[in-house]
Amino acid sequence: MTVEVRMTNLFLQLGLDASPEGVARFIKENRLPDNVGIIEADIWSDGQRQMLNEMLCSDGEWAVVVDQLSEALRAPTD
Hints:
- Pfam families: DUF2789 (PF10982).
- 63% of the residues lie in helices and 0% in strands.
- By secondary structure, it is mainly α.
- α1 (2-13) packs across α4 and α3 crosses α4.
- It is globular and about 35 Å long.
């Protein structure tokens, strides 16, 4: 449950639909190839990209959640 809350908060910070359905839809519709870093993905606005970069550089709890999102965007969908 904690991961969902944190992922929800990340989506809220990014200005995205933070509902469970919205998170699932975003992940399903925005798959990342293994050779594209989450920051380099073309799915973000400049502001979102900057926020994600700052979260990753903080190397704190937010970095863990961004890493979890990155993994989710690459995980098999079936």
